[in-house]
Amino acid sequence: MHKEETTTQNITNEATTAPKGKYSVLLYYIYSPIENPVEYRDIHHQYCIDNNLLGRIIVAPEGLNGTVSGLIEDCEKYMAWVKSDPRFAKVDFKVENHQTHAFTKLYVRIKKEIVHSELPVNPLEQTGKHLEPKEFREIIQNDPNVVLVDMRSNYEHSVGKFKGAITFDMENLRELPDHVKEIEHLKDKKIITYCTGGIKCEKASAYLLSQGFTDVYQLHGGIIKYGLEEGGENFDGKCYVFDNRLTTQVNTVNPEVISKCHVCGTTSDRMVNCANPDCNEHVAICEKCGWELEGACSVTCKENPRKRIYTGTGYYAKTTEGYKPEIALRTRKNTKHLHIVEDLGL
What domains appear along the chain, each with residue ranges and CATH number? Predict the structure, then answer.
């Protein structure tokens, strides 16, 4: 057996034989108008506190976006609770198993958008045609003319992406208009957009349609759902996620590591946030270099006096100034006096 085949087999075995954990990690979003986001934010936050859930949730006038971790039974209660609200009855939860909490804190915040894009589109009015994971798998296997377009940030697709997919060197979705010209020659092709959980594609696919692309689809539920339901075939590398795992394995069929250590160049899919908070680059760093540089991406960053303590994970909980968890206990009579701005700092 070739070395490459051995690596693939080992990854597959690890993915299929790992013991089942007691926790779930949920990823979800839904575009559904919320007329009272401040009040609902408080109710939602308090529910998470009462049920030992951690994670990051965005409440906006246009809907909900969240990634949450907790004990399996607590997550099941949470999903049922969210869906019991008629506004969110159709929300699609992606559920992964995990050994522990995937977060160390809870943030439930109000923003103008559930994914910051500033794109002049409304997914409730127009968006690309949704492809379920099974349909997506059949198309990419049988249609040689289909074009996959990755709508994630550069550091995300650096550690994992679909075979043959077009990627953009962008930091966030706001930059999409600057990159559309790179695929203008494909306007008459069948375009399929994809992202981690599907949320970016709702607006990205709508934007492509507004720019004259004629046949636009999107992978419903994103990479995570495709991995859970169809084994993640032809997704190379790992999927970057926004919790303390940093990446998750989605391909159990034909996995392949595509990223290299930022420091020494050896093959590695071990993602790290640089320990220097002034840098905080998201890069792949192997275990050896990680410990030698104490979680930093360079000697310069290692010597920075503000460098965070490295524990071997390369994950650092985000510190959000102005965020006050106790605001969830605010009385409702006070909420009517608050005004929504881009980010209330709640």
Answer: 21-114 (3.30.70.100), 129-230 (3.40.250.10)
Question: What is the spatial distance between Cα 162 and Cα 169, in angstroms, rounded to a whole number?
Answer: 16
Closest of 265, 220, 223 to residue 240, by C-alpha:
223
Give dist(CA 35, CA 336) in Å, integer: 12
Contact criterion met (CB below 8 Å) for 263 and 297: yes
The question of whether 289 is a catalytic residue gets the answer no
Residue whose pair of structure tokens reads 């609902």 in the numeric block: 40
Predicted TM-score (pTM) of this structure: 0.85
Would you say 218 and 201 are in contact if contact means Cβ atoms under 8 Å apart?
A: yes
Q: Express each pLDDT in 299-328 by its tens digit.
A: 999 999 999 999 988 888 765 545 555 554
For range 91-111, the mean pLDDT: 95
pLDDT recorded at residue 334: 43
Beta strands in the chain (DSSP E): 23-31, 54-60, 63-71, 94-98, 106-110, 129-131, 147-150, 160-162, 190-194, 215-219, 235-237, 239-240, 247-248, 271-273, 282-284
Cα dist. 227→105, 121, 192 in Å? 26, 29, 17
Neighbours of 28 (CB within 10 A): 22
Candidates 343, 342, 324, 341; CA nearest to 42 is 324
Quick check: 101 and 23 in contact, CB under 8 A? yes
- 3-state SS, 196-222, equals CCCHHHHHHHHHHHHCCCCEEEEECCH
**Catalytic one of 48, 75, 195, 297:** 195
